[in-house]
UniProtKB/TrEMBL annotation:
Transmembrane residue ranges: 20-40
Parts forming coiled coils: 46-73
Function: Essential cell division protein. May link together the upstream cell division proteins, which are predominantly cytoplasmic, with the downstream cell division proteins, which are predominantly periplasmic.
Top-rank taxon: Bacteria
Location in the cell: Cell inner membrane; Cell membrane
Topology within the bilayer: Single-pass type II membrane protein
Family, similarity comment: Belongs to the FtsL family.
Lineage: Bacteria, Pseudomonadati, Pseudomonadota, Gammaproteobacteria, Cellvibrionales
Name of this chain's protein: Cell division protein FtsL
Keyword Cell membrane: yes
GO biological process, one term: cell division
Keywords: Cell cycle, Cell division, Cell inner membrane, Cell membrane, Coiled coil, Membrane, Transmembrane, Transmembrane helix
Summary of subunit composition and partner proteins: Part of a complex composed of FtsB, FtsL and FtsQ.
Length: 111
């Protein structure tokens, strides 16, 4: 019986509401919405940057492959046998007779 009387008294007396409770709920709601929008924008930006990163990695891979092909082509064009053949066939050049070669000393690395 005492419990029911105590319940009646507590139900009858209005509890004091905090002064900010009326403006706190809308403020928190606005903050939650702003936070949600920021999260969505952040996620979208992260996905977009990741996609761009994947594209750049693909481009880098293609450039590496092209670089390898160009190095191979350069070594082919600059091979000593090819240069000698072109010099003899297209320019009419011949290697000098070794008896007529004069070595010059004192210049560059040879000296």
């Amino acid at each position: 019986m005492r419990e029911t009387a105590a319940r009646r008294r507590s139900a009858a007396t209005p509890q004091a509401e905090p002064a900010l409770s009326g403006s706190l709920v809308p403020l928190l709601l606005i903050l939650v919405v702003i936070s949600s929008v920021a999260l969505v924008q952040s996620s979208h930006r992260a996905r977009k940057l990741f996609s761009e990163l994947q594209d750049l990695r693909q481009d880098a891979l293609q450039l590496e492959e092209e670089w390898g092909r160009l190095l191979l082509e350069q070594s082919t064009w600059a091979s000593p046998d090819r240069v000698q053949r072109l010099a003899e066939d297209e320019l009419g050049m011949t290697a000098p007779d070794m008896r007529k070669v004069i070595m010059v000393r004192g210049y560059g690395k040879a000296g």
